[in-house]
Structures are given as C-alpha cells and as structure tokens.
Amino acid sequence: MTDSGHSAAVGRFLTLGDVAEVLSISAAEALDLVRSNELPAIRIGTAGAWRVERIVLESYIEAKYEEARRMALWQQSDFSDIVELSGGRILRPDKNSSPGDD
C-alpha cells in the first residue's frame, strides 16, 4: 500500500490512543501533551473526545527532531561560534567600546 493509500485508510484524525501508539507513550502522556498545548488538538462530538489531525502529529514529530538536532549542536559547541544558533550572526566584542556604551 502506498503512503497516500495508507493515509486514506487511517483517516484524517487520530484518537489520543492512536497518538500514544505512534509516539510510544501512554494515553495519559498524550493527553498531557494536548492539555499543555504542546500538541494541538480539537474536541469532536457531543462527548468532546480529543482528536489530533494526522498532519499536525507529523509536524510535531518533525519539530521534535529539529529540536533534538539543534540541542545536539548546542551541546557540541562552545555556545558562541554556531552561526545557526545565534540567528545568523557571530557576536564579537568591539575593541573600541566599553560595557554600557549603547
């Protein structure tokens, strides 16, 4: 089955149980992610059951990979020479200025 075929079979929305299974965590931990707004979800139906859109979960996972990658770079660096983590600029003290000269 292709990815698009599998996606159609799974459906657009996942239950918290589905989310927990994908992330290999407990259903309570999945609920905590939703309640803390770390993982966006919506309530569906009269019972108000939580549902997470499949694409939102995929984006969440990708963001966690990026967060882990950046953390690894940060931990391997001397904290000031990574252009990517300093917003694209390397800050060097100006030899002609003294602290407080802003």
TrEMBL record:
Domain called Helix-turn-helix: residue spans: 13-64
UniProt keywords, alphabetically: DNA-binding
Protein's UniProt keywords contain DNA-binding: yes
Annotated GO MF terms: DNA binding
Record's protein name: DNA-binding protein
Top-level taxonomy: Bacteria, Bacillati, Actinomycetota, Actinomycetes, Micrococcales
